[in-house]
Amino acid sequence: MDMKKRIHLELRNRTPSDVKELVLDNCRSNEGKIEGLTDEFEELEFLSTINVGLTSVANLPKLNKLKKLELSDNRISGGLEVLAEKCPNLTHLNLSGNKIKDLSTIEPLKKLESLKSLDLFNCEVTNLNDYRENVFKLLPQLTYLDGYDKEDKEAPDSDAEAYVEGLDDDEDDEDEGEEEEYDEDAAPGDEDEEEGEEEDEEEGEEEEEEDISGEEEEEEELNDGEVDDEEDIEEERGQKRKRELDEEGEEDDD
Fold first, then answer.
1. Which of 64, 70, 94, 141 is geometrically suited to a Cys-Cys bond with 119, CB 3.0 to 4.6 A?
2. CA gyration radius for the chain?
């Protein structure tokens, strides 16, 4: 598939100004040049053209917002000075697997003041003596060269992966935001149900307490009644005994 057709398919009914990421890997370039990409892609931040047969980036349009450019596994051997003009805000550039043989080829990159990461894997230039030291001197703005900083500490993620993950995170955040909004809409009903259940439980507990206290009062009344009955019986017995004694006394007098 040629590059123009691939770009048309990648648009998916969107306008070029809506596109922030464009992946054209493994398609065919015409005469080793970028075709079909115009300055209408003004919001483009990530462009990947891996293994498309590029020999030049001269046809690259003006892309002021482009930050990450993948050019690996092509046949580029020079002409990198156009990048500072066409993509002045580049932070990550991958030239792995191209035909870059000496430091003079990458010297124009020093005009990319925001460039933090440069990859030159599988380029002949990496075989030069003191390659890493000389590249960091030539491009002092660099933080990472071939995935490692000056102290040989590895970069957190590869450039393209880190950027794509960032895009995925943005999409996930949007999805989470929608879910949270949905939950917030549904929450009031759930809260009312929970509050209703709690109120029912509290009322049930109060009723149980009232039932228990009522039973205790009834028991106390019954116990009081039993005591009163016993006292009455004792009193009757005492009166009866007294009458008997009085009658015996009268008989003795007779």
1. 94
2. 46
